[in-house]
């Protein structure tokens, strides 16, 4: 019979949890002992103490090493959870003292994020992960990101997030500064249909919008696409060949154009993209660094929203 929780708490040590994790990783007492800086006899004694604490064997001893039984797999799994939570606690304490935040961002919102970050206290450490909305939401789910600028509409369960509309996204078509149509006063999709397009992969919001534009104009969608979610890859492709065009947010387009890296083509799109959202896990406590970044992101945006605008669930 498994002992009471109080009995386990009073007898189990954190170093024993590290040993359990190492045994799960290696299946060898010697290698596990080396990982947690114990002698082999010391590790053997610690394992015996662990199994005494739970009053049940956790491993089968074989000629191939130690193989966790069903109870052992359970103990190892929860040892990992406890270790991860302790690591998260430490990171949050570091964040409170010095400031740290992990933030995700989709390509179009990169300029919006960088503007906010430059206004932060220089003592705040920031990790930036650029990816698709789907990938960023999955990182929020597992606690890998504190927050993200993305869209919850791509999720089948948007209700599990807290989200705040930051701003609408306007789109623009960009190309090499030597593109043949760079000086054209007014373009249509037909003018660009034969050029090669750099696009998001299928089923992403920006890609769906572009496909809708072509469909509404009764033009076949371009073939031989280049698909990427990377700002840098998009820029490198456009700068390498004047025959490419790409659909990006107006913020990205203006940044490129301002630094004379690409030009903005005079094509007006009828469709409008979905707004950017500031997304966090619903009900999850926010670190000090996350709160600082959220304040920076919403400070200027708050001036653009009506006075009664408030934080709403997605």
UniProtKB/TrEMBL annotation:
Alphabetized SUPFAM superfamilies for the sequence: Periplasmic binding protein-like II, Winged helix' DNA-binding domain
InterPro entries from the UniProt entry: HTH-type_LysR_regulators, LysR_HTH_N, LysR_subst-bd, WH-like_DNA-bd_sf, WH_DNA-bd_sf
Keyword line: DNA-binding, Transcription, Transcription regulation
Any one annotated GO CC term: cytosol
GO MF term (any one): DNA binding
Key word DNA-binding present: yes
Annotated transmembrane regions: none
Residue span(s) of domain HTH lysR-type: 12-69
Family note: Belongs to the LysR transcriptional regulatory family.
Listed PANTHER family: HTH-TYPE TRANSCRIPTIONAL REGULATOR YBHD, NITROGEN ASSIMILATION TRANSCRIPTIONAL ACTIVATOR-RELATED
Entry protein name: LysR family transcriptional regulator
């Amino acid at each position: 019979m498994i002992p009471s929780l109080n009995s386990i708490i009073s007898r189990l040590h954190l170093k024993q949890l590290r040993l359990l994790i190492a045994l799960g990783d290696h299946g060898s007492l010697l290698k596990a002992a080396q990982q947690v800086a114990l002698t082999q006899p010391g590790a053997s004694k610690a394992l015996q103490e662990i199994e005494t604490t739970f009053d049940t064997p956790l491993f089968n001893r074989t000629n191939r090493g130690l193989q966790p039984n069903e109870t052992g797999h359970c103990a190892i799994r929860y040892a990992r959870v406890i270790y991860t939570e302790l690591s998260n606690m430490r990171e949050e304490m570091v964040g409170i003292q010095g400031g740290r935040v992990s933030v995700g961002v989709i390509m179009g919102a990169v300029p919006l994020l960088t503007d906010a970050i430059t206004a932060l206290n220089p003592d705040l450490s920031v990790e930036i992960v650029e990816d698709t909305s789907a990938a960023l939401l999955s990182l929020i789910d597992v606690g890998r990101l504190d927050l993200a600028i993305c869209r919850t509409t791509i999720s089948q369960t948007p209700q599990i997030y807290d989200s705040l509309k930051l701003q609408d996204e306007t789109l623009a078509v960009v190309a090499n500064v030597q593109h043949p149509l760079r000086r054209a006063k007014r373009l249509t999709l037909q003018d660009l249909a034969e050029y090669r397009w750099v696009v998001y992969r299928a089923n992403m919001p920006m890609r769906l919008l572009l496909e809708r534009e072509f469909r509404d104009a009764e033009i076949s969608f371009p073939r031989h696409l280049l698909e990427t979610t990377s700002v840098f890859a998009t820029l490198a492709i456009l700068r390498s060949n004047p025959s490419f065009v790409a659909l990006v947010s107006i913020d990205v387009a203006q940044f490129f154009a301002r630094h004379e890296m690409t030009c903005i083509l005079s094509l007006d799109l009828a469709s409008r993209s979905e707004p950017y959202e500031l997304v966090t896990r619903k009900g999850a406590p926010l670190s000090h660094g996350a709160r600082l970044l959220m304040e920076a992101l919403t400070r200027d945006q708050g001036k653009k929203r009506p006075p009664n605008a408030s934080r709403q669930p997605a």
